[in-house]
Amino acid sequence: MSDENKHHATAAALLPLVGGAGNVTSVAHCMTRLRLGLRDRSLVQDERLRALPAVLGVVEDDTYQIVLGPGTVARVTPEFEALVETERAGTARAAADHGTGPVTAEGLAAQGAAFRAERRTRNATPFKLFLRRIADIFVPLIPALIGCGIIAGLNGLLVNLHWLPALTPALTAIASGFMALITVFVGHNTAKEFGGTPVLGGAVASIVVYAGVADVEAFGRHLSPGQGGVLGALGAAWLGVHVEKWCRRRVPEAVDVLVTPTLTVLVAGLATLFGLMFLAGEVSAWIGDAADWLLTHGGAGAGFLLGGLFLPLVMLGLHQALIPIHTTLIEGAGFTVLLPVLAMAGAGQVGAAIAIHLRLPHNTSVRATIKSALWPGFLGVGEPLIYGVSLPLGRPFVTACAGGAFGGAFVGLFNQLGTAVGSTAIGPSGWALFPLLDGNHGLGRTVAVYAGGLAVGYAAGFLATYFFGFTKTMLGELDAAPDAPAALRQPAPADPVTEKV
User: Fold this and answer.
1) What angle is formed at CA 408 by the lines to CA 230 and CA 318, rounded to 5 degrees?
2) 251 phi and psi angles, rounded to 5 deg
3) What are all long-range contacts of 468-471, with beta carbons under 8 Å and residues at least 24 apart?
4) How many CB atoms sit inside 10 A of residue 284's CB?
5) Is 30 a residue of the active site?
6) Which residue windows are transmembrane per the record (predicted)?
């Protein structure tokens, strides 16, 4: 049996003995031990686990620690994590496939979840899975981006008003510290996501922001600290993972703990300094220039397309490719001009939901779902409305996209006229984006343009859905009885709209 198969077999033997994936809350490893967080300690089969040839011992502390030895634990852990994720995904699909019962507000939510799981499975192409992994690198950083972004906005307001001058330097340090080291976090998460040792990914990525890189010359120029930013960190850590895996396959386990980290940091570090930083810096500059050009010259047309296509991009999983672009723009310019335009898709969804509520006065299930999901929709949480209302109905999903298109056109037009509207962080949209807004003409004008875009998106989504969101047949089926089970149990199978998105 090859080493790779041996470590996979060890992981496969361990998982059922610790209670299966449902009993595992966290997975990590140190030099010699696989450290597991467990929901129910009583589910662990201790005697059988200790009898496994690969297990050298068990230690119980704040986590359940299985001693596998140096070198071995680093190879078994990613196999174990992969098995946990696979088992959890299979359990979720099985639960979605067996959902039954009458159509109620809860039933609609379950139906939407099943539909989302089905779409996720059908869209599991290599390219989309890669984008999902890229998203998983950046999503854990969003809370810090939001917190630091709001503090930066508050600090900017205090500076403009000349209030609390003794406090603003401290707020600047608090808001800027995370952004100064974001490459380290990106490197850490990249290595974790692609099956490497997270701290080695962070170590390689930290080279990007080290001040001493100014003494290094590559491609005839001296490097600048931070050159290449998050893209350089991502590439450096990804390369480090491949070097580490190469070493794990070839370096004897007895010296693995010394040789593998050294070669990983050395090889990936040299490649970062003499290639990746320069190339990633060029790409980052191009992304910033392209975004500025798109909205400066495309204006309303670019905003119309971006706002109108964002919900279908979400459905296809392609929106995940935008996360590193947003982060790169924030890192370079201080804000991303794309997010406020894309946020208009949520406004169109809210307007469409209000129209559906008025058009179906007798359908208590749909109206109950809208009532519970509308306020989160105003705050930028659109999934309940998408998967619980508009997408199962088919046509209203398209009219919601039309609302987002007109809202995006409004914001894009003002960008073309010289008023850049941006966000200092990614994540929130709707009303929740107001504290994160920034631009080139002061906070008042920036807020006014964004609020105007939301109003246009609400109105356009409402009007498009109210007048064009239903055929006479659909209205007859959906509003004829309180529950209207037939129409929503089979989400518009004969309507090609649903298949297109």
Assistant:
1) 45
2) -85, 130
3) 468/395, 468/399, 469/352, 469/355, 469/356, 469/359, 469/393, 469/395, 469/396, 469/399, 470/359, 470/395, 470/396, 471/395
4) 24
5) yes
6) 137-157, 163-187, 194-213, 225-243, 255-280, 300-323, 335-358, 373-393, 405-427, 447-468
Position with higher pLDDT, 161 vs 207: 207
- Residue 119 reports pLDDT greater than 70: no
Residue 472's identity, in one-letter code, is K
Angle, CA of 382, 387 and 388, to the nearest 5°: 95
Q: How far apart are CA 445 and CA 441, in angstroms?
A: 6
pLDDT at 78 over 60: yes
CA atoms within 13 A on the CB side of 146: 13
State the pTM of this model.
Answer: 0.71
Considering only CA atoms, which of 159, 178, 166, 147 is closest in space to residue 443? 159
86-103 pLDDT per residue, tens: 887 766 555 545 544 433
Catalytic residue among 30, 148, 247, 401: 30
Query: Is the distance from CB of 294 to CB of 393 less than 8 angstroms?
Result: no
User: Can you tell me which residue has the tokens 């970062």?
Assistant: 272
- Locate tokens 């854990």: which residue? 140
Per residue in 135-161, pLDDT (tens digit) is 889 888 888 888 888 898 888 888 878
Strand partners, 439: 421
- Asked if residues 479 and 454 have their Cβ atoms less than 8 Å apart, the reply is no
66: β partners: 34, 58
Distances (CA, A) of 325 to 35, 137, 148, 220, 329: 35, 13, 18, 27, 6
